[in-house]
Every structure is written in structure tokens, then in C-alpha cells.
């Protein structure tokens, strides 16, 4: 299992894509969570200086889809998802992306 935190500046609702060469394969199980974050002005701490922030906005992750490389790409895969931000202005957002192996079982229902 691998996990990474990705920071997105000034986001509104819409589709995002994150290509992660190596951990994400076309058949990986991937979970994405999101919350508001705060970049400390003038911080020399880099990404360690960014703090997660609850904020007043509700932020949702929807329609998570793992993908393999596009024709001609050299990456192993990535994940795209719809980020819904219920707020009137762009917000800085942190997403935690957790990659697991392929599903242990598959089922067809209905």
C-alpha cells in the first residue's frame, strides 16, 4: 500500500487527475479523501508548513476512476476524480491518495 498527500492551489469544483508512476496500476484500488488546507505565507518549511484546515466549506470526492497510461505515455497509471467544493471562492485543498493492490475479489450483482 502507498499513500501520498497532494496539495491543489485555488480549486473550484471540477475534475482533477493525478498520475503516479509506479504505485498506481490500471487495476489498483484507489481511495481519495479531501479537505481544505492552508499555505502559511512566507513559510520556509515547504510542504511540511502546509496545515490541514476544517474550514466552513464542504468538500466531496466523487467518481474516482483509476486509469492506465494513455497511448504513448511512460507512466504506469493515475487516478481522476471529481472534486466538489461547496464554496463561493476558490480554496486550497489537500487530497490524500491511498493506493492498494488489485481487488481480491470481483462480483456482478443484479
Mind explaining what this structure looks like?
The chain has 110 residues and is mainly beta. It has strands at residues 2-11, 14-19, 29-38, 51-53, 58-67, 78-86, 91-100. A 4-stranded antiparallel sheet has the order 1-7-3-4, with no helix packed on it. It is globular and about 45 Å long. The two termini are 31 Å apart. The mean pLDDT is 94.
Radius of gyration: 16 Å
What's the tally of helices?
Answer: 0
Counting structural domains, the number is: 1
SSE order, one letter for each helix or strand: EEEEEEE
In this structure, how is the largest beta sheet organized?
4 strands, antiparallel
Overall shape? globular
In the sheet with the most strands, the strands line up as: 1-7-3-4
User: Strand tally, please?
Assistant: 7
Poorly predicted regions: none
The residue-averaged pLDDT reads: 94
- The N- to C-terminal Cα distance equals 31 Å
| SS content category | mainly beta
Q: Approximately how much beta-strand content do the residues carry?
A: over 45%
Helix percent reads under 10%
Amino acid at each position: 500500500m502507498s499513500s501520498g498527500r497532494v496539495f491543489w492551489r485555488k480549486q473550484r469544483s471540477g475534475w482533477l487527475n493525478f498520475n503516479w508512476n509506479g504505485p498506481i496500476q490500471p487495476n489498483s484500488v484507489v481511495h481519495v479523501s479531501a479537505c481544505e488546507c492552508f499555505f502559511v505565507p512566507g513559510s520556509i518549511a515547504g510542504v511540511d508548513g502546509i496545515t490541514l484546515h476544517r474550514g466552513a466549506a464542504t468538500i466531496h470526492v466523487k467518481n474516482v476512476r483509476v486509469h492506465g497510461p494513455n497511448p504513448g505515455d511512460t507512466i504506469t497509471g493515475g487516478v481522476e476524480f471529481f472534486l466538489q467544493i461547496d464554496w463561493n471562492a476558490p480554496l486550497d485543498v489537500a487530497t490524500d491518495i491511498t493506493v492498494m493492490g488489485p481487488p481480491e475479489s470481483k462480483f456482478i450483482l443484479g
